[in-house]
Design goal:
The complex is a heterodimer of chains A (275) and B (288). Chain A has 275 residues and is mainly α. Chain A is built from ten helices and two strands. Helix content of chain B is 44%, strand content 21%. The chains are: A mainly alpha (275), B alpha/beta (288).
Chain lengths: 275, 288
């Protein structure tokens, strides 16, 4: 029983590589560009290019490949379900019908749409995970706040938003640990989570959520009190212990990303979109 | 229902960069109706070891035999085994999830597919054992309970499964003195009158000294001592080097001894200490 083992989103894996040393702003912008490229791409070659680029980042940042991709494992059943839905339900007027099954019709357009969605989710998740794996919470906060600061002028509470996001990221792990404890406590009293068919298994999950929600609210309340007792009043007037500095590595990274962006645009124009 | 642990090792997060070993080659055996205290600094591996006893952790290296049944064996019925080895968690909030006390205590037995009347009887009995009045508390909202009542409800929920062994994971932490004493009395009663084997994990040396007949000291995932309570607390220097304290009475007598009083070694409880000091004073009086 180890749920936290498969959670990689929001985990920071300390290291000394170039990727780790990059300014958090560079990494955040790079990740954003990558995500935009992902959402605009509509050809398999483009996705192959993205995959190659992500693989390079993983190798350079010295994160074990298996660990970087581990977080995807729990998502696979959901993705498979999405793929099946797309395959049978996506309709396009002039598309090839692959096969019929009962009242359902699998089309070529549906197949591609399913693939597209799966590729997008997988890569989106991997890019975000890589960002948190190589960036500590503190620098992630600093970087995001710094980038969103101009928005304060138009009244966006950027620092509060970032604080919320960071707390949410931290809570992923905390809640997973709590969930593990609750499941163990119920196993100890005779619930066999791994026995029974799909419906029986699903039913057993419900009693787990009540204590989880209770403890989540409790923790949130404690956190609020802790923050208030240390005079947290939002972002206004807060100063930073560490100031951010761009270095030559960041310039290199920026150029790399720009070249990659150009390449992606070229690929997308030159190749036939599959959907 | 004897427990046998043979060369047990355990690691967390295997296959990730965060892999770490928390138990190293643990071997021990626990006989029926023993009251065993398990002590050690935080993160020493106490809870991980304890969760092996009711198969919440299945050994990958080494073996655990509960009543001669191997927990790693696919044929072992783990649900039944977990009913025989009850586990009370440190934080009752993880354990209590039904809306009312009665329903929560009935959770364990209802998974044994017992008839309704039998379940009711079990609930009533276990509530009685922990000193919660059946009529008052049966329909009480879980969230309306005090800390001590919550612990008692949690223990009752485990007792309702009729365990032969009870693993108690630091269940007095954070309780006020009165709640603590009530809980300890419940446990003492279970051990003496029901002959239930108790594995008592605690950070309070006073509690362990008072209750346990045998103590296992764990540090950095290894067994450092495994002996009768008196013998363990006689090894003061070793315990201190691990970062553990001694029972208050033992410390008090140690201080008096170093101040020149003639007092015996191996005093564990306040009552014993009072007697020893009184005897020493009488002796002194006789001399003068």
């Amino acid at each position: 029983m180890e749920l936290t083992k498969n959670i990689t989103l929001g985990v920071y894996l300390p290291g000394e590589t170039i990727i780790h040393r990059l300014d958090p702003r560079t990494k955040i912008i790079a990740a954003t560009i990558l995500i935009v490229m992902l959402l605009l791409s509509r050809s398999y070659i483009a996705y192959a290019a993205v995959a190659f680029f992500i693989a390079m980042i993983i190798v350079i940042s010295a994160i074990p490949m298996g660990y970087a991709l581990r977080g995807l494992k729990p998502m696979l059943p959901v993705l498979l379900l999405m793929w099946i839905f797309q395959l049978f339900l996506f309709r396009d007027s002039d598309t090839l019908v692959l096969f019929n099954w009962w009242i359902f019709e699998a089309t070529e357009a549906g197949l591609h749409m399913g693939n597209l969605i799966i590729l997008r989710v997988l890569f989106l998740f991997t890019v975000t995970t890589l960002l948190t794996l190589t960036t500590s919470v503190v620098s992630l906060t600093d970087g995001l706040e710094n980038l969103l600061n101009p928005l304060r002028k138009v009244g966006v509470p950027s620092q509060e938003l970032v604080m919320t996001l960071v707390i949410a990221l931290r809570f992923v792990m905390i809640l997973a640990e709590e969930l593990e404890k609750i499941i163990k406590a119920q196993m100890a009293r005779g619930v066999a989570f791994d026995q029974g068919n799909f419906i029986q298994k699903t039913k057993k999950i419900f009693p787990v959520f009540l204590p989880l929600f209770v403890s989540a609210f409790k923790r949130a309340e404690e956190l609020i009190i802790a923050m208030e007792s240390r005079s947290y009043t939002g972002g206004k007037g807060r100063t930073k212990m560490k100031t951010l500095h761009m270095s030559r590595v960041d310039l290199t990274a920026a150029i790399t990303i720009l070249i990659f962006t150009g390449l992606m645009i070229y690929i997308n124009i030159a190749t036939e979109p599959f959907i | 229902m004897p427990i046998e642990v043979i060369n047990l090792s355990h690691s967390y997060k295997i296959g990730t960069p965060f892999e770490h070993k928390v138990l190293h080659n643990i071997s021990l055996s626990i006989k029926d109706s023993q009251f065993v205290g398990i002590i050690g600094p935080t993160r020493s591996g106490k809870t991980t070891l304890a969760q092996h006893f009711n198969a919440l952790h299945i050994p990958k290296q080494g073996k655990i035999l509960i009543d001669n049944e191997d927990t790693a064996d696919k044929k072992t019925d783990l649900v039944k085994l977990r009913h025989r080895v009850g586990y009370v968690f440190q934080n009752p909030d993880y354990q209590l999830f039904a809306p009312t006390v009665g329903e929560d205590i009935a959770f364990g037995p209802s998974h044994q597919k017992l008839p309704r009347t039998e379940i009711d009887k079990l609930v009533q009995e276990s509530m009685h054992q922990v000193g919660l009045d059946f009529d008052t508390f049966r329909n009480r909202d879980i969230f309306a309970l005090s800390g001590g009542q919550k612990r008692r409800a949690a223990i009752a929920g485990v007792l309702a499964c009729r365990p032969k062994v009870l693993v108690l994971d630091d269940i007095t932490a954070g309780l006020d003195p009165r709640g603590r004493e009530e809980i300890l009395n419940v446990i003492k009663d279970l051990h003496q009158n029901q002959k239930i084997t108790i594995l008592f994990i605690s950070n309070s040396m006073d509690e362990v000294a008072l209750l346990a007949e045998r103590i296992i000291v764990i540090d950095q995932g290894m067994i450092k001592m495994d002996d009768l309570t008196r013998n363990v607390f006689a090894r003061t220097e070793e315990l201190r080097s691990i970062g553990l304290e001694l029972p208050e009475a033992t410390v008090a007598l140690e201080n008096l001894r170093s101040a020149g009083f003639h007092l015996p070694n191996g005093i564990l409880s306040v009552d014993e200490a009072i007697e020893a000091i009184a005897a020493a004073l009488r002796e002194k009086g006789a001399h003068n």
